[in-house]
């Protein structure tokens, strides 16, 4: 097994004292998988092209008579340019301590004085190695998070539509996505407010960072602070460990506050403070934590009316409402229904392995005539259920199962009574043809006049 994989890293020592290089290599050999040394720092960059190191032990001065430490600062900068996660420990003389502290502000992780203290040298370098491993682990987690975000966002597809209302929506999205402006998205339930929020995130410079969503309407007063701001161990009965809140989880990315209109007035002040100061204090904690989040909020409430009747803070509204985007209900963008229907039909046909399915004109007409009180959410659920229950790849109006029609299909009775079964077959033929009596009669193998007689007979 590779020593490095067993927990030991690779060390590069850069110092012009040959005796010190030899002594350090001899002493540290059993603690690192590999140790390389360089006397001349001008060889450093070429060495970095050849190999990769976890920890660097770097002298501050190399030229005789010069003790400014500028050389060390220069090479520190070059190492960090090559590898931002490098862990550099400085070797300093007694008089260089103040300079070493300055270098730590520039990115060094620690320093060792030139007095030979084996315990200090070893503990400092092993701590640096531990920090390096932590940095690499965090880097790996961030890369994994990017991949997860990419997968989630790839699966969160949507249809823009060509209606005038949606064209205006996306014109606004394109203008504000690249900014840091807070955005308030308003619209009826089911109009796709979170989809628009994700599109704003994906079109921003934060797109590779996390998108965190929280439904504020589902939070009780007791959970509000801990969910948003986190909590410290012992803050309340079940707080058995520190817990990170949504603001801190979203730091660097985007925080989507859904159902913002449902936040009680007495909690709105805490939310405003966090957004305004870009700081949160976990429940049970005392130390503020800086957070870097872009706020997107959504509601189906009229917040201006709520401000007027005193149930929503005006200062919070204006903090959220830098830019407002209003999503139209589906009934006001009927021209988008054919495209939406085709999109969801293919999505669910693929999901349920139904093969290539298409909507007949009668189905699209039926979809276009419905009022859709549940908007896009209702629309896609209807399409999904219709795909699942359909026995054909060409879905007609009868196959589009709106709410009142969505029931288990009737079966032909076990009865051998001709009238019972004839009534069922006539009903099925009429539904299947979307009420076209000529086609229904043809399907049944009878003429239209006979069909009308039977409709009267069975009171259909």
UniProtKB/TrEMBL annotation:
<keyword id="KW-0067">ATP-binding</keyword>
<dbReference type="InterPro" id="IPR027417">
    <property type="entry name" value="P-loop_NTPase"/>
</dbReference>
<dbReference type="Pfam" id="PF00072">
    <property type="entry name" value="Response_reg"/>
</dbReference>
<dbReference type="GO" id="GO:0043565">
    <property type="term" value="F:sequence-specific DNA binding"/>
</dbReference>
<dbReference type="Pfam" id="PF02954">
    <property type="entry name" value="HTH_8"/>
</dbReference>
<dbReference type="InterPro" id="IPR003593">
    <property type="entry name" value="AAA+_ATPase"/>
</dbReference>
<dbReference type="InterPro" id="IPR058031">
    <property type="entry name" value="AAA_lid_NorR"/>
</dbReference>
<protein>
    <submittedName>
        <fullName>Response regulator</fullName>
    </submittedName>
</protein>
<dbReference type="InterPro" id="IPR011006">
    <property type="entry name" value="CheY-like_superfamily"/>
</dbReference>
<dbReference type="InterPro" id="IPR025943">
    <property type="entry name" value="Sigma_54_int_dom_ATP-bd_2"/>
</dbReference>
<dbReference type="InterPro" id="IPR002078">
    <property type="entry name" value="Sigma_54_int"/>
</dbReference>
<dbReference type="GO" id="GO:0000160">
    <property type="term" value="P:phosphorelay signal transduction system"/>
</dbReference>
<keyword id="KW-0597">Phosphoprotein</keyword>
<dbReference type="Pfam" id="PF25601">
    <property type="entry name" value="AAA_lid_14"/>
</dbReference>
<dbReference type="InterPro" id="IPR009057">
    <property type="entry name" value="Homeodomain-like_sf"/>
</dbReference>
<dbReference type="GO" id="GO:0006355">
    <property type="term" value="P:regulation of DNA-templated transcription"/>
</dbReference>
<keyword id="KW-0547">Nucleotide-binding</keyword>
<feature type="domain" description="Response regulatory">
    <location>
        <begin position="10"/>
        <end position="129"/>
    </location>
</feature>
<keyword id="KW-0804">Transcription</keyword>
<dbReference type="InterPro" id="IPR002197">
    <property type="entry name" value="HTH_Fis"/>
</dbReference>
<feature type="modified residue" description="4-aspartylphosphate">
    <location>
        <position position="59"/>
    </location>
</feature>
<dbReference type="Pfam" id="PF00158">
    <property type="entry name" value="Sigma54_activat"/>
</dbReference>
<dbReference type="GO" id="GO:0005524">
    <property type="term" value="F:ATP binding"/>
</dbReference>
<dbReference type="InterPro" id="IPR001789">
    <property type="entry name" value="Sig_transdc_resp-reg_receiver"/>
</dbReference>
<keyword id="KW-0805">Transcription regulation</keyword>
<feature type="domain" description="Sigma-54 factor interaction">
    <location>
        <begin position="159"/>
        <end position="388"/>
    </location>
</feature>
């Amino acid at each position: 097994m590779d020593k490095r994989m067993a927990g030991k890293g690779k060390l590069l020592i850069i110092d012009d004292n040959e005796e010190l290089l030899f002594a350090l290599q001899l002493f540290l050999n059993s603690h690192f998988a590999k140790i390389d040394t360089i006397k001349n720092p001008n060889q450093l960059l070429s060495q970095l092209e050849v190999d990769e190191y976890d920890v660097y032990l770097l002298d501050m001065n190399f030229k005789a008579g010069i003790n400014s430490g500028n050389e060390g600062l220069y090479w520190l900068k070059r190492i960090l340019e090559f590898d931002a996660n490098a862990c550099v420990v400085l070797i300093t003389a007694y008089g260089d301590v103040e300079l070493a502290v300055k270098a730590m502000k520039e990115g060094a992780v620690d320093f060792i004085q030139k007095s030979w203290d084996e315990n200090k040298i070893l503990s400092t370098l092993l701590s640096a190695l531990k920090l390096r491993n932590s940095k690499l682990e965090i880097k790996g987690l961030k890369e994994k998070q990017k991949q997860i975000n990419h997968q989630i966002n790839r699966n969160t597809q949507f249809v823009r539509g060509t209606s005038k209302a949606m064209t205006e929506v996306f014109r606004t999205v394109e203008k504000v996505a690249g900014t840091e402006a807070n955005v308030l998205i308003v619209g009826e339930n089911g109009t796709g407010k979170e989809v628009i929020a994700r599109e704003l995130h994906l079109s921003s410079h934060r797109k590779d960072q996390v998108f965190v969503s929280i439904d504020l309407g589902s939070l009780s007063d007791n959970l509000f602070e801990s969910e948003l701001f986190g909590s410290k161990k012992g803050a309340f009965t079940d707080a058995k460990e520190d817990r990170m809140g949504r603001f801190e989880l979203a730091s660097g990315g985007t925080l989507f506050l859904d159902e913002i209109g449902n936040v009680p007035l007495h909690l709105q002040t805490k939310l405003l403070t966090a957004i305004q100061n870009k700081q949160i204090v976990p429940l049970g904690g005392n130390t503020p934590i800086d957070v870097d989040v872009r706020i997107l909020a959504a509601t189906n409430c009229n917040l201006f009316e709520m401000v007027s009747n005193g149930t929503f803070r005006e200062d919070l509204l204006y903090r959220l409402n830098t830019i407002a985007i209003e999503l139209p209900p589906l009934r006001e963008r009927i021209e988008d229904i054919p495209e939406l229907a085709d999109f969801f039909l293919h999505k669910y046909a693929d999901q349920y392995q139904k093969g290539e399915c298409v909507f007949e004109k009668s189905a699209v007409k039926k979809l276009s005539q419905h009022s859709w009180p549940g908007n896009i959410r209702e629309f896609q659920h209807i399409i999904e259920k219709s795909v699942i229950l359909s026995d054909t790849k060409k879905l007609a109006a009868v196959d589009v199962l709106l709410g009142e029609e969505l029931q288990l299909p009737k079966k032909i009775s076990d009865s051998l009574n001709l009238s019972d079964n004839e009534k069922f077959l006539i009903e099925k033929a009429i539904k299947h043809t979307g009420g076209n009596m000529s086609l229904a009669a043809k399907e049944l193998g009878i003429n239209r006049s006979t069909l009308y007689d039977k409709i009267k007979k069975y009171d259909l």
